[in-house]
Amino acid sequence: MRRAVALILVILMGGILIVGCGSSGGQTANETDAAGTSTNPETKAVASEDAATTDAVTVTFWAGLTGDDQQAMKNLVERFNEEQSDIQVEFYSVTWSEIFTKFAAAGNTASGPDAMLMHPTDLSTYAGKGMITALDDLIGDMGVSASDYSTSIWEGNQVDGAQYGIPIDFHPMAMFINLDMFEAAGLTAEDAKVSSVEEFNALCEKLTTDEQYAIGLGSNYAHTYRYWYGFLHQAGGSFLTEDMSAAAFNTEEGAKALDFMASWVTNGFAPEAQADIDADWLGGNTAMVIEGPWFIPTAMNSAMNFTTVEFPQVFEENAVWGSSHTITVPVYDDRDKEVVAATNTFIGWLVENSFEWAASSGQIPANMMVQSSEEYKALELYQYAEAFINVADYVVYEPLCPGTSEFGADNELSPVANAVYSVISGEATSAEALDTAAQSVDLILE
Fold it and tell me: Which string of DSSP letters, residue by residue, matches 323-364?
């Protein structure tokens, strides 16, 4: 990473003109004035406030972050810009759907980004379209090493064995528990670390009263799909065939996982037709909620006496759904070498300083060197992050194939999600629902 910075300094001192060169440009669909300043008010509202200096190499960085996550990343970019003057990063972030629409229009043009944040499920789509770069030959220049990541996290960002993303975080599921409710039931946090269906049911029975439910489930929520995805793999099942050509979840294992979840409602452990799992937990209506690490800041800002424990392992194998925010390098055939070097430097710096992203967003740093740093461990939220860190080796990503965007957890129209909801609501049996969903997935894969 430092060698890349030194290279840029040498180029600058040698008098090579790089003013305005090579950024693969301004923001998508942006207009610029004669001085190269964005005239798009939307972009100005979310872009880094540090304008590129006259002698600096400009790198454009896009993301689909909003709200607190957007501000956290913006703060990090601004810190990078303030720490040195040779590279200035222009950060642009809108919703994920909008950013990908803009990216589709700006691919391999001077208007596209030099670096872009995605999720692993996006990688196969854009790698297949030739819109993002395989990073295997660039990783060394970024100061990044595969040995600094758990195998599941690193390989979860590969397409056909090639590395297309550098994960700055990973976010699996874990249980948030109301310690006051546990104490009232004669339980401790250790009792929430179950290892079988029987232990899970016994825990929920003790936490279920006339005034409260044991756990949230959700009737129309992406997390419900994510729970099932983890339990499917715990039961020994697979989502797709090994060659990713057909659905493989409409099996005994898939039904076993789904029937287990549906029993939370029929046994009275979870509310029927639950609309908001977070509000119910924060409001004291449920004793437990299964959420991602991004929920840590919200829980900490509440008056809740809580802690976190690992996603429940109730079947034979330990597994949990997970994803990442991962950095990609979009293809631009005419990108200048100086911008390539500057982009590599910025990505390496972002990974190195990802503890700050974690401190603001709650996301878990994917890099194990950052995870184990004293700086990260000193954060107040670290005590809650440990439950997520402990399952890093068991994270199972959704299939990295183009169809994932149509049937994955993030698509509210996913036929698989609808199958999960229909069984939980009692509208269909698990075998019927999963068979129907498998037929839809097979058509998408075709």
Answer: E--EEE-B--TT--HHHHHHHHHHHHHHHHTHHHHHHHH-PE
